């Protein structure tokens, strides 16, 4: 594994500790991820309107040529190897889980393993969608309840996470003679 020295903190780190340049596919910049993030936090703290100004510039640029960014991303992803594509998708999923649920990919895998790698409700081993398994959480306090297939997650969503609605549905199916 290649190693580089960060210009800010002086630590020698593997190239995984540096951002990857999309054009070259190798580690870029002279500062590690930690130092770059710290610098960005400091910059935003010193100039709270800076982010808004940059967002406005990006919106104007996008309005001039809306397909440019999408086309660049499409070409870049076509050039990626399968291993890089898998790593990219894993990172995207991890970021999504952290942002939305405060959950890491490793913790999701551990929860799923406790469920015998199946849906917590119907015990299906297939997620039911190309996007994978759904993280079920309580919308009131954002507590994670388990990992569900798409159908069971949709069922809870349509029932508005209400045990009363689901109990009435069970009674309805029992009265109609369904589910035997």
What is the helix tally? 7
Global geometry:
elongated
Placed side by side, the strands forming the largest sheet appear as: 1-2
Strand content: 5-15%
Pick out the low-confidence regions.
Answer: none
List the helices and strands in order: EEHHHHHEEHH
Rg from C-alpha positions? 23 Å
| Major sheet characteristics | 2 strands, antiparallel
Mean pLDDT over all positions: 88
Task: State the helical fraction.
Answer: 40-55%
Query: Based on helices, strands and strand pairing, what is the structural class?
Result: mainly alpha
Report how far apart the termini are: 58 Å
By DSSP, the count of extended strands is 4
Explain what this protein looks like in three dimensions.
With 180 residues, this protein is mainly α. Helices cover 52% and strands 8% of the residues. The chain contains 7 helices and 4 strands. The strands form 2 sheets. The chain has a two-stranded antiparallel sheet. The longest helix is centred in the middle third of the chain and has 20 residues, at 82-101. It is elongated. The relative contact order is 0.05.
List the helices and strands and how they pair.
Layout: E1 3-5, E2 12-14, H1 33-46, H2 50-64, H3 67-79, H4 82-101, H5 105-114, E3 134-137, E4 144-148, H6 150-158, H7 163-175
Antiparallel strand pairs: 1-2, 3-4
Give a brief outline of the structure.
By secondary structure, this protein is mostly helical.
List keywords for this structure.
180 residues, mainly alpha, 4 strands
